[in-house]
Structures are given as structure tokens and as C-alpha cells.
Specification:
Blueprint: H1 2-13, E1 18-23, E2 26-31, E3 34-35, E4 38-43, H2 52-62, E5 66-68, H3 76-85, E6 89-94, H4 115-132, E7 138-145, H5 154-174, E8 180-185, H6 190-196, E9 202-206, H7 215-221, E10 228-233, H8 254-269, E11 275-283, E12 285-286, H9 289-294, E13 297-298, E14 301-302, H10 304-314, E15 324-329, E16 335-336, E17 340-348, E18 356-362, H11 368-372, E19 375-376, E20 379-382, E21 386-390, E22 396-405, E23 411-421, H12 423-426, E24 439-442, E25 451-457, E26 462-468, E27 478-483, E28 489-495, E29 515-522, E30 527-533, E31 548-554, E32 559-564, E33 575-582, E34 588-597
Parallel strand pairs: 4-5, 4-11, 5-6, 6-7, 7-8, 8-9, 9-10, 10-11, 12-13, 16-23
Antiparallel strand pairs: 1-2, 2-3, 13-14, 15-17, 17-21, 18-19, 18-22, 20-21, 22-23, 24-34, 25-28, 26-27, 27-34, 28-33, 29-32, 29-34, 30-31, 30-33
Helix pairs in contact: 4-5, 8-10
């Protein structure tokens, strides 16, 4: 037994070496001298650590041998260990901030002026490499994702390129055993990389649909002889789709989603001499607009993309086929909200299973969260007699989804569009998601709706722990705000979108809430803070619709505090929690828990 334990421990510590070689005009990735063709998927279950083993067994069933991460986090060590246990590899992501809000996220970073931010990113990158360079699951480094796409000027792109080369060249001094890649959308990074980032070993190229077929040709046009990985791949995305008569982007049908992966893998990827493989986007359980379009699961049901990955990597057809929606049509005129309209729907199932039918809609306008959400529709009828849907209280064109689930938990989805008219909805200034009450801003085991990114005053003396475990009112964690100096003031805001001060539409419609409450304490008596919600004033393009706060005395005992909201306009609350405090002659800690609108 002692020998077995020692052997396992030694095996775990022995890391693999990844190399890239060109053999007879064919670029080849090798792990410990053996060819390794990347049959990958991007990873979307980071937080569900308890089920990692189940997911990895499922990935092996699909034929996946490597995962791609965009960044590392608290759960990455567990992920890496599980990958090694199952004989899989990981492209370890190193996140780089984006120069402006855009397709990728709503972050904003100035590479021309923010020297400290650049050094923070550099130090973080080097730390990631030092932490994972000897892990046996590490395959390659993947630095940044679509940063050039989200930059406005060539001046910024040049500075970023020089910064990227600095990171790459310094990584090579630390780790000679793993090649370095950086990822960009389509060809947006090629010219910059080839001219300014010679230390890149592999180009990471995100390409969807038939675009993946032309990546090598684009490199050859530029006289670039580098290996590349298709770092995101799937059916054609919304950015390339055409509009229908109601100005709604036409979504590929389920057959097209399957074929793009199953056939595209063979026709557009494996037959390219410079291509080392692909990461299909996205092994995850989607619940929004992107989930329907691109993910392997939707509301925990199997989508065609799931089975297509298995077909591509193993050659095996689905064990059970996704129900097929052969026809979905809606009336060709505008209707008022609340009206019932007839749906022309034809469905079938290869295994003739009992089918469950439901409907939902997407309104592709407003804030990022609003335009991404998919909301269920009231419906009536049945498969034999037909269906009607009740139109939602929105104004404009909406995409309507028909969803058909079989007893195997396969989910077929088709979409069409219709125009809805509603005068009240049309008068709304800001379209943000309407929440259900109670609405928690901070609580254990929830997806945080707001981000702790609005720092004010002497914020360099602040330390924020959103998962503090020692002092909590309920559950497992609380928010701890530690101010470390004896003088000065500070402020913190939980906001949506992150890192924004009123230039991007965000937040939530919390209308109907009567109170805003939270539990709070400090580490000693005599501390006070102004606490509430709302931060962005009407001088900004996208303000909070209400700003409410009150001065609160704190001591070492947990107490509940409540603000009544009878007259508050809660139609667009983009700053779900704010706190301002002074030092009062000594450092202090403030603890917050269970922040809720109800």
C-alpha cells in the first residue's frame, strides 16, 4: 500500500511536456513525444465542483480530450486535478482585459494610460504560469480572448501587442515545456501578432460556421507559417446571420447546428495542415439566448450540439435523436400585447416518444442581460388540436421559440418572429430585466446579480472579501469590507454592468419591492456607514432610477436594517448596494449579509 501511494504521488508530480513540430508540411502537437490531436470543448461548469467527476465522464463519452479555459479562478485546481484523473488536458487561460465594452463583455480598460493595471495583469499572468506549469493536465497557455476585437484604435492595439510579447517572452523563461497561444476572433489578431508578438507559438482563432474553412487561407495570404487552433467553433453566430421581415436575426435550425459541428469538423478543420485541432463552444447548460444558439444543453436538456460533438470526435450517432420541429410559423402581422395568436407547428420524433411542448420569447434590445434573457410564454392547446400563445407585454419584434422535449431529455428548438404592440412598454426609457421578488443582491448560493467593481475614495486601502466565512449572519459566507488605514474615506458599490459609471445600460427592474434590507455589523463599536442602493446620478446617460441610503451606526452585533421604498422608482436599479464610510482614527472591518429587495 505504501508503494502504491508513493507511485501515485510521483505520477501526479511528473508533468507532461507539450511541443509543436512541423513534419513534412504538417504542423503537429505532441505530448511527451506522442501526437495529440485537440478534440476539445470550452468549459462552462466552473462553479459546479461537486459534479466535476460526472462532467468529465460525460466528456470522455463524447470523445473530448481537452478543455479550454478563458481564465483561472478558485476552482481551477480542482478542475485540473479532475482532468488529470480522467486523462484529459487543459488549455489554461490567462485573462486580459478588454479595451472597451463590446461583444465579449462590458469591461473597459485603457492600455495607453493605466500602467498599474497593465502591471497587475502581467503579475497575474506570471503567477498563473508558476502555479500550473508543473501540473500534468496543462497542455498550453491561452492568453487573452478577442482583445483586439474590443479595441477602438491602432494605438491601443500596438501597446497591447507589445505588452503581450513581453508576457510571452517572459513565460518562456519560466516554462519551456508548454507552448503559448493567444486567441482572437477570426483574423483580427493575425497582422499584429505576426509583426509584434514573435514569441507566440500557436495562434488561437475563434471561428464559427464555414469561416473555419478559410483560416489557413487567411494565414497564407499574410505569409504566416504558424500552427493554429480553432479555439471556439460551432454553427454560424448571430453576428453573421441575416434578418427576417421583422428585423429579427434568423437562427440556424437544429439540423444546421448539428451538421456545422459533425460535418464541419471533418470538412473545415481536420483537413488543414496548420490546424492542431478545435475547441467546440460550448459544453455548458445555457438558460439564455446564447444557450439556445450555441450550447450543448439548455435547461439541463440535451441539444443537437451535444450529440454532434460525439459524432465529430467518435463517429457515433446519437443514442436517441432530438425531436424535430419541421415547421413553425406565426401570423404575418402585428398584434397587441396580451392577445392570443395561433401557432402553426409541426413536430416529429424518430423514436415516437411522448413529447412535451412549451414556448418562450426573446426581445433582442435593451441592456445586455435584458436582450439575452429568454422568458416563458403562456400557451394553450395540444399536439393534436394545435397551440396558441399569449403575446408578452413588450413593444416591437420578438423571437418566439417552440421547445419540444422527449422522454430521453432531448430538447428540440425552433424559432420564428412576430411584432408586438404595447404603448406602455414603448414608453419605457430603459429596458432591463424584470426580477421576481424577493430579489437578493447578496446571499449564499446565488449567482451574484451585481459586481463589486465601483470603488471610491481611498480604495487602495480596501480589501473586499465576497466569500468571508468566519463572521456571517446566516449560511456559509458574508461580505467583509476591511479598511486598513486610520484616516480618509472610502466607498464601494455593487453594480451592473461591472466597471461602468453610467455609460452602459444595465441593472434590473425591481418594481413592486416595498423594502430594501440587509444585516450588518462591524468588528467594534463606534463605526458608522452610509448604506443603501443607487449610485449613478441623472447627469449620466444611464442613471439609477432611485438613490436611497441612510447613515447607520454599527457595532459587533449583527443587526437588520431596512429602508422603506414606498415612493421609490425601482424601474432601473443598476447599483444594487452602496456603502460609504470614514476611518474614524483607526482601521476597521464591516460585515454585510443577506441584502434583499422584497
Amino acid at each position: 500500500m505504501r508503494y502504491l501511494i508513493f507511485s501515485l504521488f510521483f505520477s501526479f508530480l511528473s508533468y507532461a511536456q507539450t511541443t509543436v513540430e512541423k513534419i513534412e508540411n504538417q504542423w503537429v502537437l505532441k505530448v511527451d513525444g506522442e501526437p495529440f490531436e485537440i478534440k476539445g470543448a470550452t468549459w462552462g461548469y466552473d462553479k459546479d465542483v461537486a459534479n466535476y467527476d460526472t462532467y468529465f465522464k460525460d466528456l470522455k463519452y463524447l470523445g473530448v480530450n481537452t478543455l479550454r479555459l478563458w481564465a483561472t479562478g478558485d476552482n481551477t485546481p480542482a478542475l485540473m486535478d479532475m482532468a488529470h484523473t480522467h486523462g484529459m488536458k487543459v488549455m489554461v487561460g490567462i485573462w486580459m482585459r478588454h479595451g472597451r465594452p463590446g461583444m465579449e463583455d462590458d469591461d473597459s480598460f485603457n492600455y495607453l494610460t493605466d500602467k498599474k493595471g497593465i502591471e497587475d495583469q502581467y503579475n497575474s499572468a506570471i503567477e498563473v504560469v508558476k502555479k500550473y506549469k508543473d501540473h500534468p493536465a496543462t497542455l498550453t497557455w491561452g492568453i487573452g480572448n478577442e482583445v483586439y476585437l474590443n479595441m477602438a484604435t491602432d494605438e491601443e492595439k500596438l501597446v497591447y501587442s507589445q505588452f503581450l510579447e513581453r508576457i510571452c517572452s517572459d513565460i518562456k523563461k519560466i516554462d519551456a515545456n508548454h507552448p503559448i497561444s493567444s486567441t482572437e476572433a477570426w483574423t483580427f489578431g493575425m497582422d499584429w501578432w505576426s509583426k509584434y508578438v514573435p514569441s507566440l507559438d500557436i495562434y488561437g482563432l475563434n471561428a464559427y460556421g464555414a469561416g473555419a474553412n478559410f483560416l489557413q487561407e487567411e494565414m497564407e495570404k499574410r505569409n504566416i507559417d504558424k500552427p493554429y487552433i480553432v479555439t471556439e467553433f460551432g454553427v454560424m453566430g448571430e453576428w453573421d446571420a441575416t434578418e427576417d421581415k421583422n428585423a429579427v436575426k434568423i437562427e440556424p435550425n437544429d439540423t444546421q447546428k448539428y451538421d456545422a459541428i459533425a460535418n464541419g469538423y471533418k470538412d473545415w478543420i481536420t483537413n488543414k495542415t496548420n490546424c492542431l485541432g478545435v475547441y467546440v463552444f460550448h459544453y455548458s447548460d445555457g438558460k439564455d439566448f446564447g444557450g439556445v444558439w450555441l450550447m450543448t444543453h439548455f435547461n439541463s436538456s440535451y441539444r443537437p450540439q451535444y450529440w454532434a460533438i460525439r459524432d465529430a470526435y467518435t463517429g457515433n450517432k446519437p443514442e436517441n435523436y432530438v425531436p424535430e420541429i419541421t415547421n413553425l410559423n406565426l401570423p404575418d402581422r402585428a398584434y397587441g400585447s396580451g392577445e392570443w395568436v395561433t401557432v402553426d407547428l409541426e413536430i416529429s420524433d424518430k423514436e415516437n416518444e411522448t413529447l412535451d411542448v412549451s414556448f418562450a420569447y426573446n426581445h433582442r434590445v435593451g441592456s445586455r442581460r435584458y436582450r439575452n434573457q429568454i422568458t416563458p410564454l403562456n400557451h394553450r392547446g395540444n399536439v393534436n388540436d394545435g397551440f396558441e400563445i399569449q403575446l408578452p407585454k413588450v413593444n416591437g419584434s420578438i423571437k418566439v421559440y417552440a421547445m419540444v422535449k422527449d422522454t430521453y431529455n432531448n430538447l428540440g428548438i425552433a424559432s420564428s418572429s412576430i411584432v408586438v404592440q404595447d404603448a406602455i412598454a414603448n414608453a419605457k426609457k430603459f429596458l432591463v430585466p424584470k426580477v421576481e421578488l424577493p430579489f437578493y443582491v447578496y446571499k449564499d448560493d446565488i449567482e451574484m446579480p451585481y459586481f463589486p467593481s465601483a470603488y471610491m475614495g481611498n480604495y487602495n486601502a480596501l480589501e473586499i472579501d465576497m466569500n468571508h466565512t468566519r463572521e456571517k449572519h446566516s449560511g456559509k459566507t458574508s461580505m467583509r469590507i476591511h479598511y486598513k488605514e486610520r484616516s480618509g474615506w472610502y466607498g464601494i458599490g455593487l453594480v451592473d454592468p461591472a466597471n461602468d459609471w453610467g455609460d452602459i445600460l444595465g441593472g434590473y427592474d425591481i418594481s413592486g419591492a416595498k423594502t430594501f434590507s440587509f444585516w450588518a455589523k462591524s468588528d467594534f463599536g463606534g463605526v458608522s456607514a452610509k448604506i443603501g442602493f443607487g449610485l449613478i446620478g441623472k447627469d449620466k446617460t444611464y442613471p439609477d432610477s432611485a438613490i436611497e441610503a441612510k447613515e447607520i451606526p454599527l457595532d459587533s452585533k449583527w443587526r437588520k436594517f431596512t429602508i422603506k421604498l414606498k415612493k421609490s422608482d425601482l424601474s432601473c436599479i443598476r447599483s444594487g448596494f452602496v456603502l460609504f464610510a470614514n476611518a474614524y482614527g483607526s482601521p476597521h472591518k464591516i460585515y454585510i449579509d443577506d441584502i434583499v429587495f422584497e
